[in-house]
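Q: How would the structure tokens look for this protein?
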Amino acid sequence: MTDSPIFRGVATALITPLNEYGVDYDAFGRVIDWQCEQGINALVIAGTTGEGSTLDDAEHKAVVKFAVERIAGRCKVISATGSNDTAYALQLSKFACDVGSDALLVITPYYNKATQNGLIKMFTAIADASTKPLILYNVPSRTGVNIEPETYAAVADHPMIAGIKEANSNISKIVHTAQLIGDKLDIYSGNDDQIVPILSMGGQGVISVLSNVAPKQTMAICEKFFAGDVKGAAELQCRYLPLINALFSEVNPIPVKAAMAAMGWCKNYLRMPLTPMEPAHWEKLKGLMQEQGLI
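A: Here is the predicted structure in token form.
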């Protein structure tokens, strides 16, 4: 891994503003600027929350290039370049490195899945070809495959594999991973409801959906923890838990797109098969956002 973390604190898993014509770059630029002004530590581009799965190749590359240029060094840029097609992941990763991304987020293969040996081979192939460090992304609820702790240990010595985004929700597995990898890989929470638990296991931060709508509030959780105020960090984790749960009351990014639209950042436009939020869920989310002073 690299000598220091890719980032420490909060990386926003950024939405991609869309409309019926394609990517809304005016809105995208404004969202990027706001996140940077709020002091966010990193931005993840074209990931799950950014609807990367329905961006075509040209759009995906254009979004990454635009983000790198717009961010202009104000925070770290982590480009999502994983795929269930390793050859395409390699091509996309090379592009993201060439245009100036600081790191790559590489998801496990979905639908075709893989054995643990297949994961090792795929991650190693991408890392071998990359000029920027990788964060491996584990989200078995979406992909149908889990990265086992022993698999992390098997790739932990690769110089270009620097971290992991853990969204498997199984704290026991994450503790086992931490035991096996020591300080070889940086662990980031992939779930907003587990920021403090993962920080307590030596985690470096969170790749967050919540921070789209509440960047400073999300950063405060990490800042308090790193300053030694674990109780204060835990209190904030609990304070924002209802809002976090509402942001995941339907599949991500349906709720956060609705929330960002209500805040005036973008249109509430999603690409099928995603559809706008159900009214009952939206009313609850809206009420919680009002309670937090977000709208």
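The chain has a mean pLDDT of 97.

The beta strands are 9-13, 18-19, 22-23, 42-45, 76-80, 103-107, 134-138, 161-166, 186-189, 205-208.

Upvote if useful.
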